[in-house]
Specification:
With 372 residues, the chain is an alpha+beta fold. It folds into two domains: 2-201 and 285-366, Rossmann fold (3-Layer(aba) Sandwich); 204-264, no CATH class. The protein has ten helices and 19 strands. The protein has a 14-stranded mixed β-sheet. α5 runs parallel beside α8. The longest helix has 18 residues, at 263-280. The relative contact order is 0.16.
Length: 372
Amino acid sequence: MICYFSVKNFKNFNDEFVFDLSDVNDFEFNTECIKNDVVNKAVIYGYNSTGKSNLGFAMFDIIIHITDKYRNPRFYENYFNALSKSEIAEFCYKFKFNKDILEYRYGKTSPTELVYETLLISGKKIIDYDKRRDSMAIINILGAETLNKDLGKINISLLKYVKANAVLDKGRESSLLQEFYAFIDNMLFFKSLDERSFQGYETQHGTEIMNDIITRNHFDDFKNFLKTAGIDTEIKVLDANGEKKFFFDFGLKIIDFWSAASTGTRTLVLFYFWLQRIRFEARKPSFLFIDEFDAFYHQVLSLFLVNELKKNDCQVVLTTHNPAIMSNDVLRPDCYFLMFKDGARSLSRCTPKELRKAHNIEKMYRAGSFDE
């Protein structure tokens, strides 16, 4: 799990911006939202232009140079902060696997150009490389002893180089590094505002949503999902010019699904497209970031989707402007975060008051109790 993240000189984050998911309290309710003393289900609020989307882009920058998963180049336009004099964007991740902390830091001069990388496991330096210093890399892990450590001007991540070329031993540190690689490979980001705007988890873009649901034999589950979400209109799969497509069945008339579905319903279909991966795949997403996840939903539907995500083990971060889902009946104060210039802080850290389950945190939020 990601337990800590910071970024500097990336998009609107000029100075260091911190998102600490390990800063949890001892609340005795909704304990399933915390896993291994790390926030497992988080919701982020912030005014427009505070960087909620950019935080997601920053957290997924790591997939660009370590994985071969699909990445969206549009998300990484205007890469650096316009006010910064530095030419390096800097990132720091801390992952918690059982009781071990794996820390990975790196700097870039472009989305694909690394300047330095450092990886530590429980404080021990395992991998280190800095082009500004020299071309020699430090690789201190069993199974990588024979790798060429003089990287010269090779434009590749040292972490990806080790991943591709080393036969790692079965020791503790090697196992943690493998767990790290698997976690990064299975991270998924998507935006509810765009029909298929995503990155991570899959290697290619362009999977047709309806066909994907049908070929996975999830159509009946999909219909039940829509009905549970409050959409009762009958839906059928029919052949149209040699293709299987969804249609609304109104009895006397049958209408093409996509041409008649509301924006909210279309967005809900997109949500289910990815929910299949969380529910049914053997290789489930490890970390899910949904930007503006409920932009087109009624608050009742928003609550339904949050509760749907709570049923799954995947670490989830959602961004929203909807205070109706800010409730101790849904999550807890250390799972709701507010955006500030220097970081995202939980409600628990935005007030001196001791918060309890009985508090109406939505009412407090609307009244400005968490403003700094």
